[in-house]
Structures are given as structure tokens and as C-alpha cells.
Amino acid sequence: MNLTGRKIFAGKASGEALVTSQAISFYGGVDPDTGVVVEKGHPLEGKSVAGKILVFPQGKGSTVGSYTMYRLAKNGKAPAAIINRECETIVAVGAIISEIPCVDSIDISRIKDGAKVEVDAENGTVRIL
Amino acid sequence: MQLTQEEQGMLAGKQGNAVKKSMEILVALGEIYGAKRMIDVSSVQVAGVSYHNLGDAGLEFLEELARDGKVRVTTTLNPAGMDMENWENLGISKEFAEKQKRVIDAFEKLGIITTCTCTPYFIGNLPNFKNHIAWSESSAVAFSNSVLGAYTNKEGGPSALAAALTGKTPEYGLHLDENRQAQILVDVRTKVSGTRDFGALGYAIGKKIGAKIPLVFGIKKANIEELKTFSASIATYGGTGLYHIKGITPNRTAKPKERITINKEDIEKAKAELNDSAGTEIDLVAIGCPHCSIKELQYIAKLLNGKKVKKETWICVARPIKGIADKMGYTKTIESSGAKFACDTCMAVAPLKGRFKALATDSAKGCFYGRGSNSFKTKFCTLEECIEEAVK
Lengths: 129, 392
Fold this sequence. Notes:
The structure holds two protein chains of two kinds. By secondary structure, chain A is of the alpha/beta class. Chain A has helices at 26-29, 65-74, 89-98; strands spanning 2-4, 6-9, 12-19, 53-56, 81-84, 102-104, 116-120, 125-128. Chain A has one domain: Glucose Oxidase, domain 1. In chain B, helix 3 (51-65) links the parallel strand 2 (43-46) and strand 3. The longest helix of chain B has 16 residues, at 17-32. At the A-B interface, strand 2, helix 2 and helix 3 of A face helix 2, helix 3 and helix 6 of B.
């Protein structure tokens, strides 16, 4: 199945989808050293975003979150790509400065957790294998 | 988005890597929010300065930008994680201080004026009516949009930096008149006076209306200190970057249909909700969130004259404003009491977790960060009561 959205930051990646229907706050919500989601009560609490195709509706919380994404990338713990329903400032800026392929305007409810996914952000396409 | 030839060149890397990265950020935001073009900005305020928040990666990012980046407009910085001169006296570790200094050095290399304050309008970064600017720091955004009548979106640290390095920002949101109209009328039917009351009012309104733009009725008068703390509080507890107060703020707006009332009970409830320190001994008193004005320093000196504080007491302020207090003798009076100046920083961004249990402050915003980042209990009181608490 192919889904088409919009490029936020170009690049290609493939991997396992880590999917949540809840927004993510990178600042305070994801440990920059391990990539593990630490926000209390978040559906992804305890799971690592490292190397995953991270699928979530949008970012939330402090704008410092963009720097947290950059720290994840520098530590080798960033997601391989990001798929949003509606990207906002924090995640968009974070993806650009960290050079993480990122697309939005995707119906994320069609991506199942654990699915194998290919992202071609330049063309805004997501292929579910 | 329609880019000029110059802007396209910036995006293609013709003006270096820092400008390229900045333009990528600005274009992406413009596309996301449906901007048609870039506009020039005349002033920038950059947040994301505390090493506590940036970490090593953030520091590396800034050092990389500083290799070939230079700001093109007046740009100032938000508070850092420590007093840049007096950090040892405020209990900051050597390791933290070293990293924080590197952060500031990188900003300085970028051509930024490194007076670290959340009140840039007090130290000369003062846009006027209808100037397009790119500011981060939510309290300063609300103040500049509402009290000064400048036009800015709520920028994050990197997007503000991108605007500074290019002199541009995408035209969307609060840069457009049609998005600056009030969305809800707030009728205040009780007298508010002083920073504690205005902080409580911002809390009460913010909790009720969220990020909507209010037109506030019923405020007879407000001074700069009250508007400063109101801006901080409504942005923290609601999220709006702009408000209107009839007869006080300069922007024009049509009267919205939706309407709510704020009564005395709402203000009392706000005060009560920001007080949860009963049963815990106050061990930190902090004033100056947002940073103190010279008038506040003058008044604090008067209150502390001849007294001794018994608790750790921080007066948070921009260093140039303390310079005026030095000259006028207020500093000597305040420091003789044992109270400490915390220049360049504040209780919200310094790494204080675990050092104190309960904070007394006149700042509603200060209560939020005291509770959140630092896990303090908070006592929300007037400026006079803060001083009484300190000397008790």
C-alpha cells in the first residue's frame, strides 16, 4: 500500500514502524541519550524510537524539543524517519537540523505498529510492505 | 511559497551553510503554515540558551552554525542556566559553568548581543508598533505583540535563530492583521493591582480560554511591571501570543461575540491553586520572573533596607539593569541584606532540582516552572510578602 503526503525534510529510510495515536513531546518526553520514551502514561513509554520509522500525529510541548531530536541524532538514537499526520514547528525544525527524513499529511491510522515501512521523503511517499 | 532570487540563493547555499540551514527551516515552516512569502524582520529574541536544556548536541549545533553564520538584525538572548559572572556563589558546578560559557561564546560569535534576559525590551531590544520581528520566549512574545504592538509569531529557539541569520521570517500567523483579531471577550469584574494579582488574572484567563486571543474589559490601569507578569502568566497557562486590553494596549480589534466573565472568586481560586506549600518550610525566595525592572529593584531595596534575609533569596534581573542599580546604591542595600542577584538567569532555567524544597515568588509563571522542572512546592504571594518571607 502506498500513502502520499508532503515532504518536510528529504531523505529515504526503511524499517519497522513504531506507531502511536498520541502526540510526542521530545523535550522531557524522550531520553536524548537512550531514545527511550519516558513520558509517564504515554502509550510508547519504555519503548525506544532509535532506528524506527516513528509514526505519530504531531509534536507537543516545549520548543526545546527540536534540540532534543538533534541530541538523539548525535547519539545515534534518532528515528530513521518520521511520519506525522500534521507536522508542527518543533518536529519540523528538529527533523531539519537533525537531518531526519520526515513527511506529513499522512493518514497515520493506516499504518500498523510493527509494519515494515519505506519512506521516500523527497517525494512525500510512504510504502507499507 | 514564492521566494525571491536572493532567498533562493540562500536556500541553495550561496551564502554559506548557516544561512542554508536557516532558510531550510524558514521555508519548511512557511510551507507548513501556508505562508506565501518571506518578510524582513527588524529584531530577534533567541531562546534555548541554558546548557541544561541544550545539552552537548545543542552546543555542537550552535558551534557549527557559528563557523560561518552572522546575525543580520538586532538579536538578544534569553536567560542562561547560570549567572555568567557570579555562578559559583549561586551553587553552580564548574562542569556546568564551562559548558554554559561555550554556549554563550558560540552565540557571541554569531554576532548576538549576549545579555541573557527574558525582558529584552528593558535593555534596548525594543521594537515599536507594527514592526515585524521574530521572538521566542513566550512572555516576551506576548509582551511585544500586545503591549508594544509589534508583530511576531511564537518562535522556538532554532526558528528565531534562523530569522536572525537571514533577516527573514515566513509571513503567516500573527504577522497578518486578520489573525490578530480578538476571539473572545473577557469581562473582568474585580479590581486587580500589583504583580501577584496580574499573574493570578493571567492564570485565571489562560485556564478558561486556552490559546484564544482575548479582548479584556474592566482593567482601569496597569503599569509595565503588571503587564510584564500578565504576559508571562497568560502565555504559560493559556498559550496565546497576543492579547488586547481595552484602553491599555495599542492594537485595534473588533469586539468578539463569545464572552466570559472573571470575578473575584476566579482570582482567589487562581491564588489558591498556585499555593501548595502549606506544611513545607520555604527555603528559596525568588523575585524577577520575568526579570525585574529598575523600578522593582528600587522598591526591593527600599523593602530590604536595614534587614537581613534568613533564606536563600534571588533577585533575577538582566545585567545592564543591575548596572543601574549599582550606580544608584540599590545593589549595595540589597546585597547587604544577604539577598543575591541572579543576573543572566532565573529560577526557571537554572539547574536547581533537589537543592530546594519550596519556593516563594510573586510570579505565577515562576510557580509553573518551580513545580514542573524543579519539583518545588510553591507559595504565590505579593512582592511585599516575598520580602517578609525572606527575612522571617
